[in-house]
Fold this protein.
Amino acid sequence: EDQVTQSPEALRLQEGESSSLNCSYTVSGLRGLFWYRQDPGKGPEFLFTLYSAGEEKEKERLKATLTKKESFLHITAPKPEDSATYLCAVQALAITQGGSEKLVFGKGMKLTVNP
Amino acid sequence: DAGITQSPRHKVTETGTPVTLRCHQTENHRYMYWYRQDPGHGLRLIHYSYGVKDTDKGEVSDGYSVSRSKTEDFLLTLESATSSQTSVYFCAISRWSNQPQHFGDGTRLSIL
């Protein structure tokens, strides 16, 4: 069974204090790994897609990396506006009519950045 | 923002009543999805559609049905709502199956 585990479940940082969020996964055939940000009362907002081990993507203070078993979301010098829940999802190959490869989500990691 | 509108945004209803949630997109994307989000479970796929009148089940499809008669609209129906279906429901769209999904802002459904 495909699984995604995110750790820690919650993280509290001071402004400027860099850290990393972990996403461990087991999947039968990885098509892609996705990172999302979710603010309270809103839907998830797409951040990155990673397709192969060794790949890295960056956006402002965020950098996502991928290995064969896990992905990290590195947050450099965070600001209070980075406070949100971060979701990791894997797209596993699923042989069904229409060919849609379904996303399996982790439970999320709530980040709080204090000023 | 991706052009996704979910309606209603909030609904309170009673056990045993039928409920229909609507997802409307203006992006002309082929794929549409319905998820539910519950504390301690994360997002779970209910049903998805890969074209007009083409749908398939997700992880937690029992008690739910869907219909897609037009590219832009994807309906989720709870035929006889139960308290266990109290949740936040999200619609998502993607142009192709291997591309990122973009989400609406959700419908908060409470079943008393």
User: Anything to note?
Assistant: Chain B touches chain A at residues 4, 31, 40-45, 48, 50-51, 54, 56, 58-59, 90, 92, 97-98, 100-106 (CB under 8 Å). Residues 30 and 51 of chain B are 6 Å apart (CA to CA). The first strand of chain B starts at residue 4 and ends at 7.
